[in-house]
């Protein structure tokens, strides 16, 4: 007798309740942070392109910090190297959680979003390289269009009033997490200056102490925050980008729950730090990085200079077709079936939304063209324009399906028995059906009572006191 064929795996199917709860809570904070990020970007552009533009440069270039420790940095560098370490710390926790409890814990389930994310980074890089090689530009910025900014993408969704179903939101979040992982590797490998091995050794020792304290169950922010600052300072002086320290510490946190725990330490700390990252660190980075001078000539140069054109095409075209193509190929070869409530145009729209590469793209642009201020500003302008085009394009595609998404979200959130668990997760539970039958009977009885009162009122009969 032939063995039964395995059931095809569902792609973008319903999330488990704990996973859905995590995604909803995580993205709620990112959405608020994304709106602040958008506001900070607009503020930076207005500040830099008004008569107050000289004050913007003065503030950005103002140096502060102990020079004896090698930390006499400009405000802009403090934002890029210091505040973004908080952002990457949260990214490290997200990555650890995805690896041990999320979408990436199962290699078969992880294959599809990982392949999609890799293609979504490789294709933009190849498009950039093709454009600059043909145009005779610099290949140094190949990594600029490879990043996805989840906060900015969610801000776009908030502005256009579109709520994605949880499966699409989880897919976008997983893409961003894998994206961040490879961005971290790119920064560490390709943008490391001359190494100071003494400082690097000190940071490694500090990370070892950090891990040991976590392993021993030591608690108290007053222990970990000073240690984290020391590790960060040593990492900065080692020549490796200081944000790597944030990632390393985030990856060390335990993200699995033990018996009796409502939250793992990683989940608890992420819950505390994420608002600081999304609401303060990233917007301040944008404020001091996105303030490029915009003029008619500079906008024209974005589409004529090979480096900037490569960035725009990489974000808008490369990201969209890289992620969509990688997803389609992975689903085809793994025989994963798309959720029957969704279509491939939905995946294409999310892929276009992932073309919003802002925070990390700006950071990599600064690193790639360090020492060339004019080209750095032009690349930043290209990131802004490319992200804007991707946002408008994705917003148009998502608006075409807004009614369908709204209906799916309402179905996911419906809780008629008001027990705190969405009804869609209880449909196979006999107790749920008993509760729903009681609710419907109660509603029917109320309806009958109101009909009787209305009839008595029309007939002029006795009315109950």
CATH class of the largest domain: Mainly Alpha
Order of helices and strands: EHHEEHHHHHHHHHHEHHHHH
Number of E-type strands = 4
CATH fold-level assignment of the largest domain: Na+/H+ antiporter like fold
Q: Number of helix segments?
A: 17
The SS-based structural class is mainly alpha
Q: Strands of the biggest beta sheet: in what spatial order?
A: 1-4
The largest sheet, given as strand count, sense and whether it forms a barrel, is:
2 strands, parallel
CATH architecture term of the largest domain: Up-down Bundle
Q: What is the averaged pLDDT score?
A: 82
Helical content stands at over 70%
CATH superfamily of the largest domain: Na+/H+ antiporter like domain
**Gap between N and C termini:** 74 Å
From the alpha-carbon coordinates, what is the Rg to the nearest angstrom? 26 Å
Query: pLDDT below 50 for ≥5 consecutive residues: which ranges?
Result: 1-5
Give the oligomeric state of the chains in this entry, treating copies of one chain as homo and distinct chains as hetero.
single chain
Q: How many structural domains in the coordinates?
A: 2
What proportion of the residues form beta strands (DSSP E)?
Answer: under 5%
Q: What is the general shape?
A: globular
């Amino acid at each position: 007798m032939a063995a039964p064929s395995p059931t095809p795996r569902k792609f973008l199917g319903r999330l488990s309740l704990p996973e859905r709860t995590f995604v909803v809570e995580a993205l709620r904070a990112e959405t608020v942070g994304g709106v602040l990020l958008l506001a900070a970007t607009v503020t930076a552009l207005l500040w830099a392109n008004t008569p107050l533009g000289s004050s913007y440069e003065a503030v950005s270039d103002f140096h502060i910090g102990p020079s004896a420790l090698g930390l006499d940095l400009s405000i802009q560098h403090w934002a890029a190297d210091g505040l973004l370490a908080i952002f990457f710390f949260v990214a490290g926790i997200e990555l650890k959680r995805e690896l041990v409890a999320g979408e990436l814990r199962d290699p078969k389930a992880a294959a599809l979003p990982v392949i999609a994310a890799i293609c979504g980074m490789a294709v933009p890089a190849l498009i950039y390289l093709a454009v600059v090689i043909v145009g005779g530009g610099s290949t140094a910025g190949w990594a600029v269009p490879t990043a996805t900014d989840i906060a900015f993408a969610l801000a776009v969704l908030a502005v256009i009033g579109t709520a994605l179903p949880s499966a699409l939101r989880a897919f976008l979040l997983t893409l961003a997490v894998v994206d961040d992982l490879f961005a971290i590797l790119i920064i560490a490998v390709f943008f490391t200056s001359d190494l100071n091995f003494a400082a690097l050794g000190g940071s490694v020792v500090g990370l070892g102490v950090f891990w040991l304290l976590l392993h021993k169950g030591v608690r108290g922010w007053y222990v970990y925050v000073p240690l984290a600052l020391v590790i960060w300072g040593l990492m900065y002086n080692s020549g490796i980008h200081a944000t790597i320290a944030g990632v390393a510490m985030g990856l060390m946190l335990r993200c699995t729950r033990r018996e009796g725990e409502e939250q793992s330490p990683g989940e608890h700390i992420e819950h505390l730090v994420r608002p600081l990252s999304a609401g303060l660190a990233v917007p301040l980075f944008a404020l001091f990085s996105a303030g490029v001078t915009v003029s008619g000539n500079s906008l024209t140069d974005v589409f004529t200079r090979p480096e900037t054109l490569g960035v725009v095409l990489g974000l808008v075209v490369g990201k969209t077709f890289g992620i969509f193509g990688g997803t389609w190929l992975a689903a085809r070869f793994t025989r994963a079936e798309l959720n029957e409530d969704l279509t491939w145009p939905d995946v294409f729209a999310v892929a276009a939304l992932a073309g919003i590469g802002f925070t990390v793209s700006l950071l990599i642009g600064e690193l790639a063209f360090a020492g060339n201020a004019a080209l750095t500003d032009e690349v930043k302008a290209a990131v802004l324009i490319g992200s804007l085009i991707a946002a408008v394009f994705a917003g148009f595609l998502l608006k075409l399906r807004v009614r369908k998404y709204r209906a799916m979200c309402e179905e996911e959130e419906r809780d008629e028995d008001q027990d705190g668990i969405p009804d869609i997760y209880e449909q196979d539970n006999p107790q749920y059906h008993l509760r729903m039958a009681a609710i419907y009977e109660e509603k029917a009885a109320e309806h009958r009572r109101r009909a009787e009162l209305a009839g008595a009122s029309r007939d002029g009969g006795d009315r109950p006191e």
